[in-house]
Amino acid sequence: MNKLAFVLRHPRRAWHGVRQGKGLATRFVYSVDNVAPQGPLGNAIAYHDRRVIRECLTEITRETKLGRALEVGCGYGRLIMVLSEFAAEVIGVEREPHLVFTARSLFPDIEFRQQDSILRLPSVADGSLDLAMTFTVLQHMVDDDARAVLAEIKRVIRPGGWVLLAEKVEPGNETEQTDDRARFLSKHRPVEVYAAWMRPFVLASTRPRPAPPAWNRNSGTVMLFRREA
């Protein structure tokens, strides 16, 4: 069995050793199973997520074409393929090396960049993107880190460009610990908080993040922001 096949069949076992690596004790290390549930439920969730992204991108491309698009915290590429349906060039940024390895193997036509942190985007120039997306990433970050990610996203978006955020905005299914980077955390923030953090970008629209009935959780809200031209 080759390395990719082993990762896909045994997502927890394949990279268990990463958790024991040097310098990783200060943050939680995500596995494939942490990114999304596997099996039939995971497949249904992915379908709903891709559908709502397509709806948003169809809406905004009625006005303008997308040249370059970015997903921050792209994981193993669960959703990024939708961006390639609308943008000429797509980039995915991810901090976990094992997830980037899988993503590159699955989608060789997309550029994946592995970084030790997604709090900065040093390889992306100011105002060089038409769209940036982060999908259920910020809800797993402490406030300071989430704000740092958004500051970088705002920096790299051109005038008239767009930002798509999908995050938990109402209470429910949250962890007790919300300030410890070494543990898994999940927290909600109201839309108003994200709107304040995204200023001067304007909140253009919101829509529920759809989910199958079996996903009995707080699925979140999809928010579209625009930088004024």
Could you characterize the architecture of this molecule?
This protein has helices spanning 3-9, 11-14, 32-35, 39-60, 81-84, 97-106, 143-156, 191-198; strands at residues 66-72, 87-94, 111-114, 129-135, 157-167, 202-208, 221-226. Helix 6 (97-106) links the parallel strand 2 (87-94) and strand 3. The chain is globular and about 40 Å long. The model is unreliable at 1-25 (pLDDT under 50). The chain has 8 helices and 7 strands. 32% of the residues lie in helices and 22% in strands. It has a single domain (3-226), classed as 3-Layer(aba) Sandwich (Rossmann fold), CATH 3.40.50. It is α/β, with parallel strands linked by helices. The longest helix has 22 residues, at 39-60. A 7-stranded mixed β-sheet has the order 3-2-1-4-5-7-6, with helices on both faces.
List the defining traits of the structure above.
alpha/beta; disordered N terminus; 8 helices; single chain; seven-stranded mixed β-sheet; 229 residues; Rossmann fold
Concise summary:
The chain is α/β, with parallel strands linked by helices. The protein has helices at 3-9, 11-14, 32-35, 39-60, 81-84, 97-106, 143-156, 191-198; strands at residues 66-72, 87-94, 111-114, 129-135, 157-167, 202-208, 221-226. It is globular.
**Shape call:** globular
Arithmetic mean of pLDDT:
87
Share in helix? 25-40%
* Class inferred from helices and paired strands: alpha/beta
Compute the number of strand runs.
Answer: 7
What would CATH call the class?
Alpha Beta
Distance from N terminus to C terminus (CA atoms, Å) equals 52 Å
**Cross-sheet strand order for the largest sheet:** 3-2-1-4-5-7-6
- Hey, roughly how much beta strand do the residues contain? 15-25%
According to CATH, the fold-level topology is: Rossmann fold
Q: Which segments are poorly predicted (pLDDT under 50) over 5 or more consecutive residues? A: 1-25
- Assembly level: single chain
Radius of gyration: 17 Å
Number of helices, counting only DSSP H or I runs of 4 residues or more: 8
The CATH H-level superfamily is Vaccinia Virus protein VP39
What is the total domain count?
A: 1
Biggest sheet features: 7 strands, mixed
SSE run: HHHHEHEHEEHEHEE
- CATH architecture label name: 3-Layer(aba) Sandwich
